[in-house]
Amino acid sequence: MKLNERSLAFYATCDSPADSAGFLYKRGERHGAYQRRWFVLKGNMLFYFEERESREPVGVIVLEGCTVELCDSRDDFAFAIRFGGARSRTYVLAAESHAAMEAWVKALSRASFDYMRLVVRELERQLAQA
Predict the structure, then answer these.
(1) Are 57 and 45 in contact (CB under 8 A)?
(2) Are 44 and 111 in contact (CB under 8 A)?
(3) pLDDT tens digits, residue range 75-114?
(4) pTM for the whole thing?
């Protein structure tokens, strides 16, 4: 499948249901300040927009090969999306409440195809035993 900016922008804003959506605070890579962004999780892609009504995403994070962890910091309700490798970027996000943080961490942890593959294998194993 060929992906480009236009097809990603269309997928991010089309009528297909989102797995999760809401405001999060995203810490900038250069300045370290948090920016409030609208996030939409669809499958294994996490899109973020400047505003809820924005027509095109500012960015997208493909969640394959990542881990989602709570942050040990003074930032309330913060968590990180980490990728393996020395030069990989870590995305630090913060929710507006503890409940929202837990919901996002759970949704993001389940978003990868690797997770879905494990679920399918376990269901197949249970079915074979029945």
Answers:
(1) no
(2) yes
(3) 689 999 998 877 788 999 999 999 999 999 999 998 877 7
(4) 0.83
